[in-house]
Write a structure and sequence with these properties.
3 domains, about 35% helix, alpha/beta, single chain
Length: about 425
């Protein structure tokens, strides 16, 4: 609710920021007399940019081939593109609400599409590793209150998640912060210990740590570096610890979760991926509870089938299989490898996004929607999986992402000849 203010004065509304996976819910938005955003309280630079991008005047509600179009006509054409595609792709989902993600999964099933969240491209394959090895995880509050040792592996949260250490109460003289990266970063400058490790040595280092934790003989004991021995000792000696990471490769993530599993035999260690997008965790969670799989899911056979590597969005595009795409809350032309992005430019794309992205500008059909967390309420999942409500401090007459997706789905249910 707005704070009490004199009549005619600006109002202060509680808000939630989706600038990164932390989804800070203690933000205040000061709204002027004319209903516009005047300034923000407690946001970081990422949060300032996130709100600014969504309150800036956007392009028309609906565009067809770059030109303004009537909403109903654009919806009809979007439904026709998706219904006529032989192998459609649904991609993105990390910057929209869980309601819109559910609607996107239902659409993917209706048209027999491959659906893949952008998180596997932006963050890595941690969600897939969960299904292989299980997960030991915790909320940010648990880590703040219990973790005696916090390891930051291959991440720089001072830059990518600026309020993380504030949320975790770090640095703290009574707790240890260890950073592992290929070079000194702003995060490493605050650490109690820094281990310089080239990116291509992650698997080697993680397997060595596993051997040290399990007290397994190592062929060349003299080659094991002292910092790795010290880290293994720190982790096994603490009662509670956490590994915060942005390890990307599938084999590397499997190695990290295998290490956590080994550590949990002697102490309590959790692992948490520092996700980049505000609802990247929700995208994988929603897909998993709807299909049983967190990413790279195909409905082409009439039932969900997952095959990471084969059905990743980038792989499907690079092989030239996708012949149409629905992109929701994402900008794949700025994210995908060049060959995949080039293929995406060559096929008809339907974009649903509150922002004017490179993908929206190049799309056959583009819908510029009301922004979740600014103009529309909803729910997202923080990077630790905790559901966080979004509020709507500003007003907009545009439909939300899930309303546009529902309108497309309604048209898909019509007889095929009605869409031609």
């Amino acid at each position: 609710m707005p704070s009490p203010e004199p009549a005619g004065a600006p109002l202060t509304w509680a808000a939630t920021c989706g600038g990164c996976g932390l989804v800070c819910d203690d933000i205040e938005v000061v709204v002027g007399e004319r209903g516009g955003l005047e300034h923000l309280i407690r946001t970081c630079p990422l949060g300032d940019a996130w709100f600014a991008e969504r309150v800036a005047p956007g392009p028309p509600l609906a565009r067809v081939d770059g030109r303004e179009a009537e909403l109903d006509g654009a919806l009809d054409q979007a439904a026709a593109i998706l219904s006529q595609a032989r192998a459609p792709l649904v991609y993105g989902l990390g910057q929209t609400t869980c309601d819109a993600q559910r609607a996107a999964v239902a659409l993917a099933e209706a048209i027999g599409a491959v659906i893949d969240p952008a998180g596997t491209v932006l963050d890595g394959a941690s969600g897939l590793a969960y299904q292989t090895l299980g997960a030991s995880t915790a909320t940010l509050g648990d880590i703040r209150d219990r973790a005696e040792v916090v390891v930051v592996w291959r991440a720089d949260p001072v830059a990518t998640h600026p309020r993380l250490f504030e949320r975790l109460g770090l640095p703290d003289p009574d707790r240890e912060l260890v950073v592992i990266d290929e070079r000194r970063t702003a995060t490493a400058a605050q650490a109690d210990a820094f281990l310089e490790l080239p990116a291509d040595r992650d698997v080697e280092a993680l397997w060595t740590l596993r051997a040290l934790v399990r007290d397994t003989p190592i062929a060349d004991e003299a080659a094991v570096e002292r910092p790795l021995r010290d880290l293994a000792a720190r982790l096994t000696a603490c009662r509670n610890g956490a590994i915060l990471h942005r390890v990307r490769g599938h084999v590397e993530v499997l190695a990290l979760h295998a290490l956590v599993r080994d550590l949990c035999r002697v102490t309590h260690i959790v692992a948490l991926m520092l996700r980049r997008e505000g609802n990247a965790a929700g995208a994988e969670d929603v897909l998993a509870w709807q299909t049983g799989y967190p990413a790279a899911v195909s409905f082409a056979r009439g039932h969900p089938r997952a095959s990471p590597g084969e059905l990743d969005a980038a792989a499907v595009l690079e092989r030239g299989e996708a012949d149409a795409a629905l992109v929701v809350g994402s900008d794949p032309l700025e994210q995908l490898p060049p060959a995949a992005a080039e293929r995406l430019r060559a096929i008809p794309v339907v974009s649903v996004d509150p922002r004017d992205t490179a993908t929206a500008a190049a799309a056959r059909i583009a819908f510029t929607t009301a922004a979740p967390g600014v103009h529309r309420a909803g729910v997202v999942h923080r990077l630790d999986g905790v559901p966080i409500p979004l509020r709507s401090p500003l007003a907009s007459s545009r439909p939300s992402d899930d309303e546009v997706l529902a309108a497309i789905a309604e048209r898909l249910a019509r007889p095929r000849e009605a869409l031609a």
